[in-house]
Amino acid sequence: xxxxxxxFLVDSIYKSKEPMxxxxxxxxxxxxxxxxxxxxxxxxxxPAVVDPSNSQHFCDRVVDGIxxxxxxxxxxxxxxxxxxxxxxxxxxxxxxxxxxxxxxxxFDFRRMEVSPLLLVxxxxxxxxxxxxxxxxxxxxxxxxxxxxxxxxDLRNIGKLPKDQQEVVLSSEQDAFFKANMYENFGDIGMNxxxxxxxxxxxxxxxxxxxxxxxxxxxxxxxxxxMSKIVEERKLMLVSETxxxxxxxxxxxxxxxxxxxxxxxxxxxxIDRLRLVMLYALRYKKESPVQLMQLFNKLASRSxxxxxxxxxxxxxxxxxxxxxxxxxxxxxLLNIARNMAxxxxxxxxxxxxxxxxxxQTMESISKGQLRDVESISIIVPxxxxxxxxxxxxYEESRSVALQNASNSGIRFxxxxxxxxxxxxxxxxxxxAQMIARSSTAVI
Length: 442
Description:
Elements lengths: L5 H10 L11 E4 L2 E3 L16 H22 L4 E4 L4 H17 L14 E6 L5 H4 L5 H8 L2 E2 L2 E3 L12 E3 L6 H6 L4 H20 L5 H23 L2 H13 L3 H13 L5 H15 L4 H14 L5 H11 L14 H10 L14 H11 L15 E7 L4 H11 L6 E6 L5 H21 L1
């Protein structure tokens, strides 16, 4: 099961003598990751009664996008959803109504021995993946510069040639990116040096060098700009503390580390906010006094972000709202598993955290998925996981690694948008503003 690329589809259409219909109400980011690019993504955070019209529009758009995926794949799935999420339940039920009642003829495809699974989950179950600084290559590009439909806009980076100001960053077209998109940032510099050395060797042999020359120039420019941002904002220090908050214990040590970073003049407002947000998600119940101290510090140090946004996150995705075991601290067995994840297959301290989606896929593979309405006990061979509220490139990496593990299941990941922390905070601010307005009216 794969998301076919536009070039192949267009070629097939032109070669075919028969009329063809292709359902493409989605954007394929890579073969196993798609997005709906929804502008009003914050609506999913609000109860339907707050804004019924926009809530229905949001659900309709998601249902249409999910239907488009399964029409393109020629599948009709079993549909399951996250039990504690009203929005996931609503989307799953409306999708089932469309596929099995209203447009059942469109989805009358050849029956498979084991039906594929559509799992609709709520992005608020993993706020940690959105609150921390990602350090694999594609996620970091999206976080620091931004990727929109596989394009990177570099027009604000100094004086660049016109043909390098907006560049496609796709694993289908860029061999270097394909080989390095999931690598951690610390290794990218060395790999780019090898690319430049390769270009120099090819140029000496009078072979065609235009493509690799352009690729080398673009990636050198991209990584140079990212390195500059990392140094200016002290992001390696910030990320190390974020990884400790997400993966390890030590409340006293992390409180001291967060406090020191809040006092660091080089740390940006958005990074200060993310640090306090992560601490609040981890230690709200264990250290309320220290958390209030961090709130006061954030209020005095940040010109843009205030503690009210952190408190809104806790209402949306605090420990009482989540179903997933984000921090692995519910019992000793989960602590041991979390520590094992922090050692096995991890290059360094900066890449310990695994998105909650990783655990979800492992549970599906074992037929042990919890907190989901009526999960089938039969392990499916094909699974589409749709995250209401958006996906991240870190989650896309988890899907790619899972698909490469030869588990016998192929996963596709989709969401309403592709998030970075700026987009996540923008959605939070818009939802918070509407929530305040509705409360004031009431």
